[in-house]
Structures are given as structure tokens and as C-alpha cells.
Amino acid sequence: MFTHTDLIRLMTSESPSAVSIFLQTHPTGKEVRQDPIRLKNLLADARTKLTRTSLTEAEADALLQPATDLLEDREFWQHRSTGLALFIGQDQLDDFHVPLDFEDRVVVGHAFDVRPLLPLLTADGQFRVLTVTSESARLYTGSRHDLVLDTTAGLPERASVENDYENPVQASPPARPRVGSANISNAQVYGDGPPDFRKALLQEFVGAVAKAVDKLNAADPQPLVLVADAEVGGHFQHDAHLGSMLIGVVHTNPASLDVRELHDLAYPEAKSRLDSGRVDAIAKAAELLGRGDQGATSVLPDIVRAAYRGQVDTLLLGEGEPVWGRYDLDADRLETGPAFEASGEDLWASAAVQTLQHGGSVHLTKPDELPDQAAAVALLRF
User: Considering the entire predicted model, what is its pTM?
Assistant: First the structure.
């Protein structure tokens, strides 16, 4: 999954020529064979745009070669979602297969265009899904679009533990004559019986999972949906201390669910909670702007400056056109205009990245959701 770390790394990459390519892909169907052809056409478009700047044809070909090599890479085309984003720079190629429906396009400039990927990082699209069975626990990072297994979660694995219960299969029944060894009655066994032992082991395992999830939530609070059968789910809810971060419980055994089925079950549990943050922020923006409160602004230069200075608590960004330009933080100078399309950056995307980097939240909104048809509104911390 595309992460905040990926976003910041791309935005801080330094390359004299940065190529961003977005392509709609098809995991199945007859269109699958057309995807490499469409990428080839987009690379040709990128080559043309690069040679219109300061690169020669040979330099453009060398820059694009790592992406060109993907055209014949069968394994690469076997691992696809509905969208492909490629970022090509000097000695750099990053590819992300993401569950977004892109319009095919190429952007060439001095900075990567990351705005099409922002829907994956918005505050109303982030949650966790925890699946627990008697045998294993898994944690997923979720968005409104997809789930991705978190392989770094460090959840405990179910230990194979032997108890000291011994079934007296070698004992003679009390009514039978003694033959060889001394008679042992069924009462003379040691350790919990199998049902009690399994229950104790399950409670211990689920308790360890709850402790690990509590630790993760303390470091990085995110809403969580639990998917487990009633018994396992009951033990987890008893042991965990997630409070309001536990936003939904689905009582079913997740062992047989694939990732898509799991997402279809979990996201409805999270949706109302996730949407509420955006709805509340829009209402607060309308209130503050309506009375002229300086705690909110819809002016582009003010939003960009505040984002770079860490003042933006919440950024409401409309799904409008980019504003190409450049902001110099040290000189506090902001420039915009068509001339920056090839050499500048999308200032709205930069404001979003800076907001996220300083611990703020970003919500993408429809054009008619923001007050006064604003392109964006920033709610300020100070």
C-alpha cells in the first residue's frame, strides 16, 4: 500500500527531470493485453515532453529505460490492481499498483505529481482490520479502497504447547484383575482435560494479541475493526483497551475470507466513523469562514504558508485542477502561473504533503461540499 513515507520520499526526491505516469490497469479480462501497449504510448508521450525541455533524445531514452524494460516483464504485469503509478527520475523508478481508477496521463517537471495518490492517505480512508482465530492473528492496513497485510505488526504467533494431561489408555478398569502394573483409575490423571486446556490456551493467545494491538494503538492510534467468531471476539474485547478506537466487530470466522471479502465486511463498519471526521471539518470550516474567524482560511497563499509552517490541523482539499507554482519557505515567496507547469509543483498537493508531514489530517471533498465553492479550506492550529 502507498504510505505517508512513500509520499514524503517522492516529494523530497531531487531530480532534474521527474516523470509521473498514471495508467488504468485491468487485473482480468481481455483488456489485460492492452495495458503494456498503453504504457508504451504513455512512455512515448513522456519522451516527447522530455525532449521539449533540456534533454536530448538519447538522454530521454536513458532516463525512461527502466520503465521501458517493464513492457516485457511478465511478472510485473501479473501483480496488478486497477491503477498503476510510475515515478521515474535520475537513477530512480518507483511503481505502485493501487486500487484507484486513474485517467491515463503523463506529467513531466522538476517534481513528481503525487496528487492522484492522495485518496489513499486521506483521514477518512485510514483504518485497521484485525482478524483473530484460534490459530492466528493478522493485522491489515485499510482504506476505502483496499486492505493490505501489515507484515511489520509483530503480532504473537500461536504457540504449540503440550499440556501434562495423560489419557490413561494403559490403565486397567477397576473391575478387572490386576495384570502386570498396578491398577489406575480414571480419576488419577494429571493436568487439565483437553477442552479446558484448549480454552486456557485460547485465552492466553488472544490476551497476547490484545496486548500487542494496544501497544500499536498507543504509538499510532487508528480506528480498528475486529473480525473474529463470537468466542474469540469476546475474549479480545475483554482484554483489549482500545476504547473508542474499536469501531466495529464482525462476528465470523475470517479463516476462509480472501482480502476482498474481508474488505467488504469491514469497511461498512468503519465508514460512518471515517466520514464523520470530514463532515465535522466541513461544518467547522463553514462556521469559521462565515464569521471571519482567522482559524480558517481558503486563500491559496495563506494555506501553503500555513502548511509549510506546520499550522494546518485539517486540510479540506477539493477535487479540482492543480495550481502550478513554487513556494520558497526561506524567502516566503510564492509564485504561480502556467509557466510553472513543466518546472514547478502542484501547490495544492504540496500543501497536503506538508500537512501530513506535520501530523495534520487531509480530507478530499467534492467541489460543492466546501463553503463559498472554495477550492480548499485549511483549519489552523494557531
Answer: 0.72
CA gap 228, 245 in Å, rounded: 17
Residue 375 backbone class (left: φ over 0; alpha: ψ -120 to 50; beta: rest): alpha
Could you give the CA distance from residue 90 to residue 63 in angstroms, rounded to a whole number?
6
* Cβ neighbours for 47, distance < 8 A, ≥ 6 positions apart: 57, 60, 61, 64
* Domain map (residue ranges) of the chain: 17-109, 126-257, 276-380
Over range 195-212, report the average pLDDT: 91
Asked if residue 298 lies in contact with residue 374, where contact means CB atoms within 8 angstroms, the answer is: yes
DSSP class of residue 177? Answer: P
For 102, residues 6+ apart whose C-beta sits below 8 A from its C-beta are 22, 23, 24, 83, 84, 85, 116
For the domain made up of 126-257, the CATH class stated in words is alpha beta
Is the pLDDT score of 376 beyond 60? Answer: yes
Average pLDDT of the chain to the nearest whole number? 87
d(Cα 274, Cα 266) in Å, to the nearest integer?
12
CATH of domain 276-380: 3.30.1330.30
Give tens-digit pLDDT for 152-199: 889 998 755 444 444 544 444 555 555 444 444 444 444 555 778 888
- Which residues on adjacent β-strands are paired with residue 86? 21, 95
- Quick one: pLDDT at residue 159? 57
